[in-house]
Write a structure and sequence with these properties.
- With 319 residues, the chain is of the alpha+beta class.
- It has one domain: Clavaminate synthase-like (Double-stranded beta-helix, 4-Layer Sandwich).
- Helix content is 28%, strand content 23%.
- It contains ten helices and 15 strands.
- The C terminus is likely disordered.
- Bound molecules: fe (ii) ion.
- The site of fe (ii) ion has 4 residues, from loops.
Amino acid sequence: MLTVTPITPRFGATCSGLDLTRKLTPAEVCEVTDAMDQWGITVWRNTGMSDADHVEFSRNFGFLERVPLREDTPYRLPFRELFDASNLNAQGDITNDPAAILYRKGDRLWHTDSAFMSLRTSYSLLLAHDVPREGGETWFADTRSAYDDLSQAMKDKLEGLIGVNSLWWSRKQAGADISEEEIDARPKAEHPLVHVHKGSGRKALFIAAHTMDVTGDIKGMDQAEGRALIRELIEHATQPQYIFSVSWNAGDMVIWDNLCSMHKGGEYDYTTRRRDMRRTTVREGTEPHQLETGDDPYGELFAMAPRVVDINAARAAGQ
Ligand SMILES: [Fe+2]
């Protein structure tokens, strides 16, 4: 029997009472999705889940994105459905690779996972394996309540506006040395700044550190105004009344719905403290039975080597 305890009045809940290491019944899966639809973020303490349990449980919610294989790069984790969100290298040691460190800095800006893909991510499921004693929490922001509380004038203004999202834009914000021309030449994805969150029928902002420009029915808005608008919306949605943080222990899992929230990693001493976090990522609009075996565009996009960008940046920075 699932027990759901709210974390804030409108957003986030701690869940207990379900053993996630065993196969759930369809009714139990519905209980989880109902909790997600209402609360956007669910926190599950001390799950006891293995990597295999993590992937199996995640499949209840749709097609899982896969990490692209790189011929010359070993992968630390046993399943391609597990994204490595750690500060460790393939051997399991704390990385001192400046490219990897710079790449992870982008995760500490407010974002939604995979906003730069044309098919977005619905749920991200992050399981903690090893965590630092201090810091390394994850912050979440409620983009439905943030939308609800906007003035009617702002809601009217946002109708028909579309955000242009790029992975490399967020990395540039985090310090990567990449020009706007280079970003422009790389894949981008457009998503409305406001959309209806299917599971709840509520409207939500869809914004992220990846959101670079505003297009659509822009009514004379120029690029600078568009960028200022994105900044204003992110600042609005991350005010104290819309956010909370989760501190982790090994075994804890958090599920977040990217289509009604933003998140960011908290700071910690990543040069001396291990933080081993592994994430599965569910593709928007897919059903549990859609367990295709082929590669998908996500792999293709990443095979275009964002790490090369960061390695160049690290070199340019003289590291
Ligand atoms: Fe993320």
